[in-house]
Write a structure and sequence with these properties.
Keywords: Cell cycle, Nucleus. The chain is mainly alpha-helical and about 200 residues long. It has eight helices and two strands, in the order ααααααααββ.
Length: about 200
């Protein structure tokens, strides 16, 4: 596309559509149609006979368009307000550029090594999480089922309480040796004057 007809997309002011000659407009349209028709050619895998990872003919055409600067011109035509007459041609060319690509491939393409590192980090975090959960389970299994402050309730046979019933002891069995009837009662306070010397 002649830069005088479109203007330089890298900074100079484009020629207004009113100032363009009829031949410039026809030339621009023919070039856009040629690019569209070249990209529209369907792939033929049997004819290409390429190995895995090798660039297809379509990819090589896209690379040639990039090297020639045609992609910059297409971006300029798509974004310039005064070039709206070419919008459908540019849209068709862009859709043909992405014809064989899936959205997942395009999203992962720009990440490359970053995506691989992210996947490795995710796997490492998952293994650490699994290890932590396993440790938490083993700690839970090692814990006694009841906390140590629970003493239970025991009936002391042969030791009578206030009535004719046996004493009910609410402390742990290890406290049984220090049992007295005064356990839990507040000691009576003796005034200082009456205290033994």
């Amino acid at each position: 596309i002649p830069l005088g007809a479109l203007g330089d997309p890298h900074g100079s002011v484009p020629q207004d559509w009113e100032q363009r000659q009829e031949e410039d407009t026809l030339l621009i349209e023919r070039i856009l149609l040629l690019v569209r028709n070249v990209l529209h050619v369907p792939p033929d895998p049997t004819e290409e006979q390429r190995i895995d990872g090798d660039a297809s003919v379509h990819d090589r055409v896209l690379w040639a368009l990039h090297i020639s600067g045609m992609d910059d011109l297409l971006k300029f035509l798509a974004s310039a307000q005064v070039e709206q007459q070419w919008a459908l041609h540019v849209l068709e060319i862009i859709s043909l550029m992405f014809r064989d690509q899936s959205p997942e491939e395009l999203a992962a393409l720009g990440q490359g090594a970053v995506g691989a590192e992210h996947g490795e980090d995710t796997r490492e975090l998952e293994t650490l999480r699994q290890r932590e959960l396993a440790e938490k389970r083993t700690r839970a299994l090692q814990r006694p089922s009841r906390h140590s402050r629970f003493g239970g309730s025991y009936v002391l046979q042969g030791l009578k309480s206030i009535g004719d019933r046996d004493v009910v002891f609410h402390k742990g069995l290890h406290n049984l040796k220090s049992y007295s009837h005064d356990l839990g009662k507040e000691p009576q306070r003796v005034p200082r004057q009456r205290q033994a010397a």
